[in-house]
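Standup, Tuesday
Yesterday: got the pipeline producing structure tokens again.
Today: sanity-check two examples.
Blockers: none.

Example 1:
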Amino acid sequence: MNTLSLPLNIRRGGSDTNLNFDVPDGILDFHKVKLTADSLKQKILKVTEQIKIEQTSRDGNVAEYLKLVNNADKQQAGRIKQVFEKKNQKSAHSIAQLQKKLEQYHRKLREIEQNGASRSSKDISKDHLKDI
């Protein structure tokens, strides 16, 4: 009868926790940092694009307002101005929130690039959970 011999570091059970990986912690930390940095860079691009879209929309609202006010009487101009100001405030608020988010992403990216793996994996996991 032939028997297969298994290395001693493979245990019975089927659980992933029983596997013995000979991978240094530094490599795993590097990959976590790289993945986190890449994720932040994607978020920065997305938020930057959202800001551009919101600014374009705001510019369109301004152009529309100017066109409408030019052709309106005094009473209509007052109503048009109220509607425009409301839209403009919403737009300004959205842009401010997006810029704040962008600054936070840039700050996190700088921290990760400067500190690298010194940041605990618990903190990185918290960030990923927040994003989800």
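Example 2:
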Amino acid sequence: MAVITVVSDLKPFKTMWKIRVKIIHLWKQYSVAGGLTLEMVLIDSSINASVKKYLVNQFDYFLSQGSSKILINFSLNPSCGSYRTTIHPYRIGFLSTTRVRSCDDLPDALTAFEPVNYRDILDGTLNTDYLV
């Protein structure tokens, strides 16, 4: 069995990772090009994860906002483009072979997620490459 890896140590050269994360935000997103996807912000260290349209039905039941999970066997892809949800250089992509397991809750105080100040949104000083 794979050792649990810290999110900040993930690199895109393999898919057999095992991480323990808490889902701090979860939403369904629809686009004409990509169809329906499940999008998440996970903490241990902030990273974004995505479940593509053809896998949504496979994972929708197992994922809920506020829950802690162990994720096994997933891909890492560069996180780029407008409206990135985190500053982590990669995003997790679920595969048909990804496994989701329940685990003990990670503490609420554990977070690298840094919400922005509302006044910074209004005055336009934030980097628009990231979703705020």
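Quick observation on example 2: The chain has a mean pLDDT of 80. The beta strands are 18-31, 35-43, 47-51, 68-72, 75-78, 90-93, 99-102.
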